Amino acid sequence: MHKTRIATAVSAAAVIAVAATACSGSDTTAGSDGHVTITYMLPTSWAGVPGFQENVDLWEKQTGNTVKLTPVPDANYDSLVQARLAAKSGVDVFAGQDTAKDKAAIMKPATGPWIQRLSPDIRKAITSADGKIWGTPSADGVNATGVIYNKDVFAKAGITTTPTTLAEFEADLKKVKTAGVTPLFLAGKDGWTLLQHRSAANADFLGADPQLASKLDSNKIKWNEIPGFTQEYEALAGWAEQGLTNGDVLTATYDASTTAIATGKTGAIINGTWALGAIAKANPKANIGYFLLPGADGKSTLGLQRPNLLKVATFSKAGKQAQDFLNFMIAQPQAQKFLDANPGVSAFTDVKATKASGGVADLQKLVDQGGFVLPLDQQSAIPQPQDDLIAAYQELLGKRIDVAKFGELNQKAWQNAGNKAGAAGF
Predict the structure, then answer these.
(1) pLDDT of 249-266, one tens digit each?
(2) 377, 335, 349, 104: CA torsion to nearest 10
(3) Which family does it belong to (predicted)?
(4) What is the CATH architecture assignment of 145-301+382-421?
(5) Which of 75, 276, 332, 399 is deepest in the core (most CB within 10 A)?
(6) 200 with 145: CB under 8 angstroms?
């Protein structure tokens, strides 16, 4: 999960904070003219996203209503939203709470003409078993994890096509090393960055076995029993052992990784496509591409995250206006304007970035092909034991454990998470 995503599982590009207003907003009230003020709670890290405020201003101008943007410190966001929801006051629009068991108690099902504009696969991915969609997709792009690479570095190393097998990928990394550039940059200090390799590998596992998430959730299969698991992690450990990664894997940061690939000091990183923005910021002229992490069997599957869903509180006195606001923000003209300012891959079939970078264009091509899977953390009912998994990755890349022990640590962390969640079979 991206470092700024907190537990709400929504991206920084979803919304924008324009003022450090206090978090003590009052209930929605209507003015004497019948217009209302909608309170929209959001994490403070979502500030400065181009294009958002202009669309908010346009809706306010057209309707006469007001959107009160209430930024909340990221670390406290979920707890403060939950407090407002429990008090049934002080919030009309919010993000997160996707795993709530009784969604109807805190949020309204979303409706609008945008449903038919969603790509069929994405529509299916966000529709719950009861046939409802619990939240309105935001205008920002959807994301996927995989290999983000510097096309110029690869070209100078004599690499003309992207790899489709682990053996081909390793051969390419060796070519980059021979050319005098660090082949693969892993940022282990931030921890969450290492889990992007896990997400990419898990997508291949899920593509090979669509029932894998349910098997893991019911403890019917162990991690080290998943076909391809051992080969995938032996490859990763081997890259570190052979000097195909940066020497400071355990102390390198996410920012260092995006700067390194932007400036051509490394050939590739394994991360989410949200990193493309940071790379472009470090070097707008960087020639960047994206491909899927090869699966152990030579087959790769795109793991595409659900679009970020924004919710209208069940108790909102301005529920109709709040839903109208969210629908307006993703109507084709507004969604296109937003994506033009923040190039990415839209959840809507009638919205595509007009200035797509190489990486965005590569992801768009994969999305258009269809056949993607949801990431494990969006399929599983068990909260992911991220801290334990990060520690296992650090031990493996630090060459303190082998892949067999890494598999044992993964399974132990999963067992503990399943027990804590009270999942059947644990």
Answers:
(1) 999 999 999 999 999 999
(2) 50
(3) Belongs to the bacterial solute-binding protein 1 family.
(4) 3-Layer(aba) Sandwich (3.40)
(5) 276
(6) yes
Task: Say which range, 68-77, 386-395, 410-419, has the weakest mean pLDDT.
Answer: 68-77
64 backbone dihedrals φ, ψ, rounded to 5°: 80, -5
Enumerate residues 6+ apart whose C-beta is below 8 A from 308.
9, 10, 11, 14, 95, 137, 138, 140
Looking at 3.20.20.70, 2.30.22.10, 3.40.50.150, 3.40.190.10, the CATH number of the domain 6-141+307-360 comes to 3.40.190.10
> What tokens were used for 332?
């084709």
Angstrom distance (rounded) from CA 360 to CA 343: 7
361-399 confidence digits (pLDDT tens): 999 999 988 889 999 998 998 989 999 999 999 999 999
Residue 9 has pLDDT above 50, yes or no: no
- Which tens digit of pLDDT belongs to each residue from 99-124? 788 999 999 999 999 999 998 888 98
Specify whether the CB–CB gap between 206 and 376 falls below 8 A. Answer: yes
State the distance between the two ends of the chain, measured CA to CA, in whole angstroms: 25
In the chain, residues under CATH classification 3.40.190.10 are: 6-141+307-360, 145-301+382-421
Residues 71 and 98: beta-carbon distance below 8 Å: no
- Find tokens 């908010």 and name the residue: 56
